[in-house]
Amino acid sequence: xxxxxPPFAIQYKxxxxxxxxxxxRSRRIFRLQFTDGKKPLTITVARDNKEVKFWTSxxxxxxxxxxxxxxLIAEFIRNKKN
Length: 82
Hints:
Blueprint: E1 8-12, E2 15-24, E3 27-34, E4 41-47, E5 53-57, H1 63-81
Antiparallel strand pairs: 1-2, 2-3, 3-4, 4-5
């Protein structure tokens, strides 16, 4: 398993969000604190009944945001390795 990322920032819909990663029971959890005052968002990767991975919010209810920022987080981490 890869190392926990130190805190970093992403741009989402014209605003910045601070991203903090933690590991809980071998699960990677990301907490986003938005600079525009929007409520913080906590997301993780889950698997559906066909074992397909997807980003989801914790608690559920902000699925669209979770998928959008999840892709940005994954892109940030992938680009860091190059």
